[in-house]
Amino acid sequence: MSGQAPLIEVRNLSKYFGSVIALKGVSMAVNAGEVMCLLGDNGAGKSTLIKTLAGVHKPSEGDYLVDGKPVDFDSPREALDRGIATVYQDLAMVPLMSITRNFFMGREPTKGMGPLRRFDFKAADDTARAEMHRIGIDIRDPQQAVGTLSGGERQCLAIARAVFFGAKVLILDEPTSALGVSQASMVLKYIVQARARNLGVIFITHNVHHAYPVADRFTMLNRGRTLGTFGKTEITKDEVLDMMAGGKELQDLSAEIDGMAARI
Amino acid sequence: MIENTSAGMGAADAPPVPADERLRRESSVKKALGRPELGALAGTILVFLFFGIVAADTGMFSAKGIINWMEVSAQLGIIAIGACMLMIAGEFDLSLGSMIGFAGMIIAIPSTQYGVPVWLSILMAFAGAMAIGYLNGIIVIRTGLPSFIVTLAFLFILRGLTIGLSRLLTNRTLVGGVKQQAEGDWFAFLFGGEVGGPIFVWMAGHGWIGTLPNGNPAVSGIPMVILWWFFLAAMASWILLRTRYGNWIFASGGDAVAARNVGVPVTRVKISLFMFTALCATVFAACQVVDFGSADSQRGLLKEFEAIIAAVIGGTLLTGGYGSVVGACFGALIFGVVQMGIFYTGVNTDWFRVFLGVMLLIAVIFNNFVRKKMTGGR
């Protein structure tokens, strides 16, 4: 990467909760216009790592740099203000509220002064519709409840909201895990689009078929440590599969099943 | 709002999106079906039709009769607005009824026993009740306990305090004599007064409304409590539907965690609504005390449930995040009309409770159906 500092970088990051070592000596970086795939089994420390990046946890040891400068976030709000947006699995969406109300939740555009200051629905509706249109999702009516959208559409809405409000780095926590094939591909296409807009994306997933097509680099976590970061050219799909969540267990399982089949 | 994302996607600057051709122009009837207040509106129409036929010749729809059921509806409507806003934010206030008795005593005891001007004692009642609303809110937020339990505790604490303190300070549980004290007090007039007297005299002069034997019109004016109802309803509805704070109310009740994650000040929203509910209870109490001229430590008994029922009939979900102030007002209107209609038609008032229960059940089943339609299937 051409001398420019990565958007975010951690060096030798450790995080302890009492006697529990959640992360130990983790180093990774994400550049602009890059999708970094974060892989690891349950308990590998993925959640702790993204929560640390998002400003929820403070690192116990090590450095956290944004645009090459060390930072020390006290709250998720501060991380957000620096353009680090995390889309968690619950999406921070309220199904009973309209698309527009959700899109601008907490950051409503207003017009008018003093006691007449009010939610500018016209502008908000137009923006929400345009932003969704831009990523290829035609919403019929921005006043319809989010509960009526499909899972993929909801996920894209959450990402579109983060991008619209100035995210430079998107941290996506298993955005495709609960989705069917066509819904997941809708989200994957959007991840590629975000990369094309020069955003840095940290993409957490269990599914190698989702990870491999969009990721530029892979960082493997295992039991709180990194197994390393690999460029796409350095590693094959099968190797990724072996290293990532449950790869070994799956092999053991298939061997075990073969063994059982042989005995019957 | 400025476009935040940098370039990189050539054709990115989104062109104005034309109206979507798949968006069928829905008939206004069908659109109305998706609104929370629909059930209550339909119920109101039904109730009016019913009593319009059954009680047509009883005087229920004379000027005096209309003022009567409007006054009953307005009293309930005022607290239903508070209960409704708080429920949309995902919380309950069961101490509302006790708050009415408590606030009433704060008005009556200082003004009749200690010579405090009525306007000052009304302000003290607002301050006292809202402080307790704040306390309710802060305990709910800090402990994370359900507001149902916390405010249930305050239901008993406040009622007990009201009875205990009034016995201790006045040796009675009914404190009268506020009327004389409130004479000429313009601030008390805001709660217990009547407006539009000359209009009614004029209408009586033309024989449009009935007159009393002494020649005065049957209605001497519109009680302030009705104006308070309209004022609070308009204000609360506007805030809920048209402001950022309104969006925060929906968000706090719909999913407090999600709302917090995107920067909605959920704590502030909920505590302020506990205080607003207390304010509504105090308006109710002030109107009643100044109008009756007395405070009774039993006032407001069971009102918390009536307010919640009115809100639920108005389409507000018990689980929060969805509802309508206008709907709650229709709910209160149904209450008032049925309560007075039963009185006018001479039906045994025992049946009022049966009606209430059945209405509540129907409303909850209907709301549940609406919610499923909104969140789950298409």
| Helix percent band of chain B | 55-70%
CATH superfamily of the largest domain in chain A: P-loop containing nucleotide triphosphate hydrolases
Count of discrete domains of chain B: 1
Radius of gyration of chain B: 23 Å
How many helices of chain B does DSSP assign? 16
CATH topology of the largest domain in chain A: Rossmann fold
| CATH class category name of the largest domain in chain A | Alpha Beta
**So, CATH architecture of the largest domain in chain A?**
3-Layer(aba) Sandwich
Arithmetic mean pLDDT of chain A: 86
Structural commentary:
The complex is a heterodimer of chains A (264) and B (378). With 264 residues, chain A is of the alpha/beta class. Chain A has helices at 46-53, 76-81, 99-103, 121-134, 151-164, 181-196, 208-214, 237-243, 247-263, and strands at 8-17, 20-30, 34-40, 61-66, 69-70, 84-87, 110-111, 118-119, 169-173, 200-204, 217-222, 225-231. A six-stranded mixed beta sheet of chain A has the order 6-9-10-3-11-12, sandwiched between helices. The mean pLDDT of chain A is 86. With 378 residues, chain B is an all-alpha fold. In chain B, helix 4 packs antiparallel against helix 5 and helix 4 crosses helix 13 (266-292). Chain B is globular. Chains A and B meet through helix 2, strand 8 and helix 4 of A and helix 11, helix 12 and helix 16 of B.
